Amino acid sequence: MVLSVKLKTLLKNLAIPLIVGAVAGFLTKEDVTEFMATAQKPSFMPPGWLFPVAWTILYILMGISSYLAETSPKNDKSRAFIFYYAQLFFNFCWSFIFFTWNMYLLALIWIIVLLALIIITTIKFSKLNNVAAYLMIPYILWVSFATVLTYAVYTLN
Fold first, then answer.
1. Rounded distance, CA 145 to CA 33, Å?
2. Which of 39, 67, 112, 116 is deepest in the core (most CB within 10 A)?
3. CA atoms of 157 and 155, how far apart (whole Å)
4. Which residues contact 107 (CB under 8 A, 6 or more apart)?
5. What is the H or E stretch that residue 123 is in?
6. CA 71, 77, 82, 84 torsion: positive or negative?
7. Distance CA 127, CA 120 (A)
8. pTM for the full model?
9. What is the mean pLDDT of each run of 10 residues along the chain (157 residues)?
């Protein structure tokens, strides 16, 4: 079996989530620093350095997943990508709601919707390419954990 990679398509699919994450991270960097210094956090809160590392890995997996879904020979990819881009939008906005505006209850509701959108995206991707769906599982797990963290921060603050 010969693996054929459409390099421009792969790079585009990698770039989109990485840029979304980088822009959100850049625009909320000072707010994140202030949050880490002043907010009440649960005892199971990971160290701050772990978040950019984890998110970079997740964005790369997400990009590969979207590439595999996009290059699938199956038809009707549009619904899958509506959910994919919707979850990227919710992912981008969450940082501002949580870190910039400190609206922890709204952030909790927002991240629950985000998690639902990721799960729907994963299900839609599974119909296009099983590996694409498997690559979304770490993202589901991380956002599930982030949902628990968001709830804990909401209750503590």
1. 20
2. 67
3. 6
4. 94, 97, 98, 150, 154
5. helix 104-126
6. negative
7. 11
8. 0.95
9. 83 98 97 96 95 97 98 93 98 98 98 98 97 98 98 98
- One-letter amino acid at 62 equals M
Give long-range contacts, CB 8 A cutoff, 24+ apart: 6-13: 6/67, 6/71, 9/67, 9/70, 9/71, 10/63, 10/64, 10/67, 13/63, 13/64, 13/66, 13/67, 13/70
Task: State the DSSP string of 40-93.
Answer: ---TTPPPTTHHHHHHHHHHHHHHHHHHHHHT-S-S--HHHHHHHHHHHHHHHH
Give me the residue label for tokens 């992912």.
91
Cβ atoms 100, 110 nearer than 8 A: no
Question: DSSP letter at 138?
Answer: H
Give the span between the Cα atoms of 57 and 64, in whole angstroms. Answer: 11
Joined tokens for residue 77 = 């990819």
Q: How many CB atoms lie within 10 A of CB 139?
A: 25
